[in-house]
C-alpha cells in the first residue's frame, strides 16, 4: 500500500485511503457471555458529564462496544466507510486502527491537528462513536482534546462535539447527536485530535468504532418486538 | 454412481460426472445426441440403453431441468419412472420442480414385464446357477451335522459376499473354510463377519414390520406369511449363528447366493431372490437340524450370535428391489437404511411356532429351490419351474409391499413440495413406526412444521432426528433456521459445531454456522460462512437466500438483491428468495413491486400466514386497506396462532380510525402474548387517540417496562407527546420544546420517516 508523507499545508487531502475490512478474530462457537445490561449506556452519561467538567477526575472507561452490538440496537458500520488519516508512521496506519486489536495503534506523523476521516458512500445515520484510548500505555501520545466534526465533504464540516479526556483508560463512547437530539445523518465524520496529554506532538489511537442504529422491525413502522413469539413470525428466513 | 452393467459403465459414469462438473451440455450430448444435433427421442434412448434407460432418462431430465427446459425434463422423469417405478429420485425431482406426479399411478407394478425388467436377476437364473454351483459344497457335505456346519459357513460367506467392500478377503478366506469343515475357521469366519458387521454403520436394519403387519401389501413388506421358525427353538439356535431364529432365515438362504456370487455376479443382485427363498428353507433345515441336534452341540460356542448380520440381508434385499443393479443403488440403499431402523426386538418377539415344514408339502417343493442340504439335493428331482414361480411370487409380493411404502412416502413428499404441510404431516405420521422413526421421514415432517411456522414442533422433531441419526446432515439447515427463529443460541452453536466437525464439505453445515453467528449479530462472520456454503455447493439455493438475508441486515441491499436473484436462478420455486426480494422492495418503499414479489412467494406456498401478513401490510401501505384487512383475515383463518397477523390487523384498523375494533383486537392479543411491549404501545396510541390519556400513559409505561433494553424510544417519545394535541405527525419543533435528554434515538414516527425516506430517495 503506497504511503505518501503529508505536507503540513495539505491537511484536507487524505493520504492513506483504504476500505478497511472487518477482520474477524473469533472462531469459537461458544455462546456469548451474558450482556451486562445497560452499563455501557450509564457510562455514556457519566463520561459526558465528566468530559464537560474537566476536573482532575480521570475519564472512566465505558463498556466494551461488543456488548452494544449484542443488544441489537446498533451495528458497526466502519466497514462500509472509507477511512483516511492526515498522517501516519509506516506500519501504524489505518489497518492498525481498524483491526479490532487493542495492542496495535495508529501513530500520527505530522503536525496537529491530526485527523481521522470517515467517509460513507451514502448519508448514514450515526449514533455513537467509540474510541479506545489508554493513558498508561500511550502517555504523551494519548489524545486529550478531541473534536468531532460532520458534514458532506472536507469543506463542509461542522463541529458537533468536543471532548476532553483526562487520563482515559478504556473505551470512550461519544454519542453523536444533532441539535434535535437525534443521531446525526451525515456523509462524513472527521475526528480531530487537537491536543495530547503532556503536550505531545503525535498521537496514538488504538481503535475506533462507529455505530449506527439498527432499523426497527422488518414490517410496519413500529418499534422492535420484545418477545420471541412475535419475533418468530416477523419474517421468513 | 456405482456402475451397473460393465458395458454401460464408461458411458454412464461419464455423463454423471459431467453433470456433477456442470458441463451439462456435454452430458446431454453424450446421452441424447446433443443440443444442436438431432436429438434422439426417448424411445431411441430406451432401446439404446436397455435396462439402464431409466437412469439415463433420469440423468437427462436433470440436465434439462438445470438448463431451464423444465417441460422436457419432467417428460424425461416421467418416462424414467414409467420404466422403473422403483426409482425415487426422478419422483423427488418432479415434485421439486413443481409437477404433481401421482404417487398411486407411479408406484405400482404395472406389468410383469416391467417387474422383470426392473429385477433382471430372476429366480430362474439363480436356481439354475445354484444347481450347478452347488456341486462343490455338495461334495463336502456328507453328513447332516457337517451340512449344518457347512450351511453356517456358507451363511457367513455369502453374508460376507454381500459386503462388497470386504468381500474379497473374506470370501477367499471362507473358501478354504468350506473345504475343511472345522470349527476353527468357522469361528474366525464368524468373527470376520461380525467385524464386518460392525464396520457397517447401522446395518442392523430389518424390513420386517411388527408382527401385526403381515400382508405384503402394507409397507411392512418383507414379512412373508409363511412359516418362520420359532425363536425358542433351542436346537435351531445351536445351529445358526444368530439366536433370534427369524434372523436366520435369510442367512440360510445366503448360501445359495454364495454360489451365485462366486459366479461373478455382484452379491447384491442375489440377495433378493435368496431371501425370498430362504423363508421356505428354514423350516426344513430346522427339521433336519433337530434330528442332528446333539451332534452339532459343539458348534454353538463357536458361533457368536451376530444378530445384525441377517438383518443386513433384508435391507440389501430391499435395496436390490429399489435399484435393480442400478447406479442409484447406493443413494437409494442409503435412504433405505435410513428408513428401516433395526427391528431386532420385534423379531425376537415374533414367536411363531416352528412350523417345521414337516407336514407341509409345498415346503418340500420350495426346499428344492435352495438345495442346501446335500441329502435334499440328492433327493431333489423336482423341476425348477414351481420353485421359480414361487420365488417369483415372493419377489412380487415383497415388491408390492415396497410399492405401497413408496406410494405413501410419495404422497407425503408431494404434499410437502406443494406446501400442503398439514396433509404431509398427516400422511407421513401414518407410516409404520419403523419407517416413521427414520431420519428422512422425520426431516420431512420437521420441514413441514417449519413451513407452517410451528417452530417449537419442528424443533422437537429435529432433535429427535439428531438423536436417531446424528450423522445426518441433510435437512439440518432447516433445523438451524428453526433454532434461529426460536433464538436458542446454545443449541444452535452445538449444532453448527457438530455439523462443521462432521462434514466440512456440506453446505448445510456452513449454513448452520452462518445462522449461529447471525443470531449473535456478528453479521460479517455470518456472511463469510454463507459465502463458504456457496463455495462448497454453488447449486444450493438456500445458502444464497440466507446470504441475502444477512446483507439485508447489514443494509447492503444491492448485494442482497443479487443473492436472492441467484437463489431464484438455482431454484425458481424457492419461495424464501421471492419473499426476500419483496422485503427489500418494501424497505425501499417500492410497495407495488414488494406486493408482486410477495404474491409470487404466496403462489408457491399458499398456506404461509407470515406471507399473507406481509402482503396485508404492503396493501395497507398502498392504501388498499380493505384488501389489506381481507388478506389479514385470511391469514388469521389459516393460522390463528400467529400473533403478528392480529397485531397488524389492529394497526390497520387503528389507521382507519376504527378504534373500538382495534382495541378489541389488541385486548385479545394481550391475552395471547401478555409480555409483548408492542401490544401495549399500540393500545396506548389508541387510547391517546380516543383522548383517554390516563390509560394511554399507563399502557405506554407498561410498554416501556416490558422493553428492558430501553431501545424503543418511540415509546418514550409517545409518552412525551401525550400532552400534545391529538396529532400523529409530530413536528421536530415540538420535540425541541420537550427537551428531554433521553430521546436521542432515531425517531420512527411517521413524519420523520417520510422525511428520511424522502431524503434517501433523493440520494438514490
Automatic annotation (TrEMBL), chain A:
A Pfam family it matches: ANAPC10
Gene3D superfamilies, per database record: Galactose-binding domain-like
Superkingdom assignment: Eukaryota
Coiled coil: none
The keyword Cell cycle belongs to this UniProt entry's keyword annotation: yes
Extent of the signal sequence: 1-19
Keywords: Cell cycle, Cell division, Mitosis, Signal, Ubl conjugation pathway
PANTHER family named in the record: ANAPHASE-PROMOTING COMPLEX 10 (PTHR12936), ANAPHASE-PROMOTING COMPLEX SUBUNIT 10 (PTHR12936:SF0)
Protein name: Anaphase-promoting complex subunit 10
Lineage, uppermost ranks: Eukaryota, Metazoa, Chordata, Craniata, Vertebrata
Gene: Anapc10
Automatic annotation (TrEMBL), chain B:
Basic residues: compositionally biased ranges: 335-353
TPR repeat positions: 507-540, 541-574, 575-608, 609-642, 677-710
Gene3D superfamilies the record matches: Tetratricopeptide repeat domain
Keyword Cell division: yes
InterPro entries named among the record's database cross-references: TPR-like_helical_dom_sf (IPR011990), TPR_rpt (IPR019734)
Pathway involvement of the protein, from the record: Protein modification; protein ubiquitination
Biased composition regions of type Low complexity, renumbered to the chain: 288-301
Residue ranges, annotated region (Disordered): 224-362, 721-764
Keywords: Cell cycle, Cell division, Nucleus, Repeat, TPR repeat
Organism domain of life: Eukaryota
Compartments (UniProt record): Nucleus
Biased composition (Polar residues): 236-245, 265-280, 302-311, 320-330
GO biological process terms, semicolon-separated: anaphase-promoting complex-dependent catabolic process; cell division; metaphase/anaphase transition of mitotic cell cycle; protein ubiquitination
GO cellular component, one term: cytoplasm
Family the UniProt entry places it in: Belongs to the APC3/CDC27 family.
Designated name of the protein: Cell division cycle protein 27 homolog
Organism encoding this protein: Cricetulus griseus (Chinese hamster)
Amino acid at each position: 500500500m503506497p504511503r505518501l508523507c503529508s505536507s503540513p499545508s495539505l491537511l484536507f487531502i487524505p493520504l492513506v485511503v483504504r476500505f478497511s475490512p472487518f477482520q474477524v478474530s473469533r472462531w469459537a462457537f461458544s455462546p456469548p457471555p451474558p450482556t451486562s445490561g445497560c452499563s455501557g449506556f450509564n457510562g455514556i452519561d457519566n463520561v459526558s458529564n465528566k468530559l464537560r467538567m474537566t476536573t482532575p477526575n480521570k475519564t472512566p472507561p465505558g463498556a466494551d462496544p461488543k456488548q452494544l452490538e449484542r443488544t441489537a440496537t446498533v451495528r458497526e458500520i466502519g466497514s462500509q466507510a472509507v477511512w483516511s488519516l492526515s498522517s501516519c508512521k509506516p506500519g501504524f496506519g489505518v489497518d492498525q486502527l481498524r483491526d479490532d486489536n487493542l495492542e496495535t495503534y495508529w501513530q500520527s506523523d505530522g503536525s496537529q491537528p491530526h485527523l481521522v476521516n470517515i467517509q460513507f458512500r451514502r448519508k448514514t445515520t450515526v449514533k455513537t462513536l467509540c474510541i479506545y484510548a489508554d493513558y498508561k500505555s500511550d502517555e504523551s501520545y494519548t489524545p486529550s482534546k478531541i473534536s468531532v466534526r460532520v458534514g458532506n465533504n472536507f469543506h463542509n464540516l461542522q463541529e458537533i462535539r468536543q471532548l476532553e479526556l483526562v487520563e482515559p483508560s478504556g473505551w470512550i463512547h461519544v454519542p453523536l447527536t444533532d441539535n434535535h437530539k437525534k443521531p446525526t445523518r451525515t456523509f462524513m465524520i472527521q475526528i480531530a485530535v487537537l491536543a495530547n496529554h503532556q503536550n505531545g506532538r503525535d498521537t496514538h489511537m488504538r481503535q475506533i468504532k462507529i455505530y449506527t442504529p439498527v432499523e426497527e422491525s422488518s414490517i410496519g413502522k413500529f418499534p422492535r418486538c420484545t418477545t420471541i413469539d412475535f419475533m418468530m413470525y416477523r419474517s421468513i428466513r | 454412481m456405482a456402475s451397473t452393467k460393465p458395458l454401460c459403465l464408461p458411458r454412464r459414469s461419464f455423463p454423471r460426472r459431467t453433470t456433477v462438473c456442470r458441463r451439462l451440455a456435454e452430458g446431454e450430448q453424450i446421452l441424447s445426441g446433443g443440443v444442436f444435433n438431432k436429438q434422439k427421442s426417448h424411445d431411441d434412448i430406451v432401446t439404446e440403453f436397455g435396462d439402464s434407460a431409466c437412469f439415463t432418462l433420469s440423468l437427462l431430465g436433470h440436465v434439462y431441468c438445470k438448463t431451464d427446459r423444465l417441460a422436457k425434463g419432467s417428460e424425461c422423469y416421467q418416462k424414467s419412472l414409467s420404466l422403473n417405478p422403483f426409482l425415487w429420485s426422478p419422483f423427488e425431482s418432479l415434485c421439486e420442480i413443481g409437477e404433481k406426479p401421482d404417487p398411486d399411478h407411479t408406484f405400482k407394478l404395472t406389468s410383469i414385464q416391467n417387474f422383470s425388467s426392473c429385477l433382471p436377476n430372476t429366480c430362474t437364473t439363480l436356481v439354475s446357477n445354484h444347481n450347478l454351483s452347488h456341486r462343490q459344497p455338495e461334495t463336502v457335505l456328507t453328513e447332516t451335522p457337517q451340512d449344518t456346519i457347512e450351511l453356517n459357513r456358507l451363511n457367513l460367506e455369502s453374508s460376507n459376499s454381500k459386503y462388497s467392500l470386504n468381500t474379497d478377503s473374506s470370501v477367499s478366506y471362507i473358501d478354504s473354510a468350506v473345504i475343511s469343515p472345522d470349527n476353527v475357521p468357522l469361528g474366525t469366519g464368524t468373527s470376520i463377519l461380525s467385524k464386518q458387521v460392525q464396520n457397517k454403520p447401522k446395518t442392523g436394519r430389518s424390513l420386517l414390520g411388527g408382527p401385526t403387519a403381515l400382508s405384503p401389501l402394507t409397507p411392512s413388506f418383507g414379512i412373508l406369511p409363511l412359516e418362520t421358525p420359532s425363536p425358542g427353538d433351542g436346537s435351531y439356535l445351536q445351529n445358526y449363528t444368530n439366536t433370534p431364529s427369524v434372523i436366520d432365515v435369510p442367512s440360510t438362504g445366503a448360501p445359495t447366493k454364495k454360489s451365485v456370487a462366486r459366479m461373478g455376479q455382484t452379491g447384491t443382485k442375489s440377495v433378493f431372490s435368496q431371501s425370498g427363498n430362504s423363508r421356505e428353507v428354514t423350516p426344513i433345515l430346522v427339521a433336519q437340524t433337530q434330528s442332528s441336534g446333539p451332534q452339532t452341540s459343539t458348534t454353538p460356542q463357536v458361533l457368536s450370535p451376530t444378530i445384525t448380520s441377517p438383518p443386513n440381508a433384508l435391507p440389501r434385499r430391499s435395496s436390490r428391489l429399489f435399484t435393480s443393479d442400478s447406479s442409484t443403488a447406493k443413494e437409494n440403499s442409503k435412504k433405505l437404511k435410513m428408513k428401516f431402523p433395526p427391528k431386532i426386538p420385534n423379531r425376537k418377539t415374533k414367536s411363531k411356532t416352528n412350523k417345521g415344514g414337516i407336514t407341509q408339502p409345498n415346503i418340500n417343493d420350495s426346499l428344492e429351490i435352495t438345495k442346501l442340504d446335500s441329502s435334499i439335493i440328492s433327493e431333489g428331482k423336482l423341476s425348477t419351474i414351481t420353485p421359480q414361480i414361487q420365488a417369483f411370487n415372493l419377489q412380487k409380493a415383497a415388491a408390492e409391499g415396497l410399492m405401497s411404502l413408496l406410494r405413501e412416502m410419495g404422497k407425503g413428499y408431494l404434499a410437502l413440495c406443494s406446501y400442503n404441510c398439514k396433509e404431509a404431516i398427516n400422511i407421513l405420521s401414518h407410516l409404520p413406526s419403523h419407517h416413521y422413526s427414520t431420519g428422512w421421514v422425520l426431516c420431512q415432517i420437521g420441514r413441514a412444521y417449519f413451513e407452517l411456522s410451528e417452530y417449537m414442533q419442528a424443533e422437537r422433531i429435529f432433535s429427535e432426528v439428531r438423536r436417531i441419526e446424528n450423522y445426518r446432515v441433510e435437512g439440518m439447515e432447516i433445523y438451524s433456521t428453526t433454532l434461529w427463529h426460536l433464538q436458542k443460541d446454545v443449541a444452535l452453536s452445538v449444532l453448527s459445531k457438530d455439523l462443521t466437525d462432521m462434514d466440512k464439505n456440506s453446505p448445510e453445515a456452513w449454513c448452520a454456522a452462518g445462522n449461529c453467528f447471525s443470531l449473535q449479530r456478528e453479521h460479517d462472520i455470518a456472511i463469510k460462512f454463507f459465502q463458504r456454503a456457496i463455495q462448497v455447493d454453488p447449486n444450493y439455493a438456500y445458502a444464497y437466500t440466507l446470504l441475502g438475508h444477512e446483507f439485508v441486515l447489514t443494509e447492503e441491499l444491492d448485494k442482497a438483491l443479487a443473492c436472492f436473484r441467484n437463489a431464484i436462478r438455482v431454484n425458481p420455486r424457492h419461495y424464501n428468495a421471492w419473499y426476500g426480494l419483496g422485503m427489500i422492495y418494501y424497505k425501499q418503499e417500492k410497495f407495488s413491486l414488494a406486493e408482486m414479489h410477495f404474491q409470487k412467494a404466496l403462489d408457491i406456498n399458499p398456506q404461509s400466514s407470515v406471507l399473507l401478513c406481509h402482503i396485508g401490510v404492503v396493501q395497507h401501505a398502498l392504501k388498499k386497506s380493505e384488501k389489506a384487512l381481507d388478506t389479514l383475515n385470511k391469514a388469521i383463518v389459516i393460522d390463528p396462532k400467529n400473533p403478528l397477523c392480529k397485531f397488524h390487523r389492529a394497526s390497520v384498523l387503528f389507521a382507519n380510525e376504527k378504534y373500538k375494533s382495534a382495541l378489541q383486537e389488541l385486548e385479545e392479543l394481550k391475552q395471547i402474548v401478555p409480555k409483548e411491549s408492542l401490544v401495549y404501545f399500540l393500545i396506548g396510541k389508541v387510547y391517546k387517540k380516543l383522548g383517554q390519556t390516563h390509560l394511554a400513559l399507563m399502557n405506554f409505561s407498561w410498554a416501556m417496562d416490558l422493553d428492558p433494553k430501553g431501545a424503543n424510544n418511540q415509546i418514550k417519545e409517545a409518552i412525551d407527546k401525550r400532552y400534545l394535541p391529538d396529532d400523529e405527525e409530530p413536528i421536530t419543533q415540538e420535540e425541541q420544546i420537550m427537551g428531554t435528554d433521553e430521546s436521542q434515538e432515531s425517531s420512527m414516527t411517521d413524519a420523520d420517516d417520510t422525511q428520511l425516506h424522502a431524503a434517501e430517495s433523493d440520494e438514490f
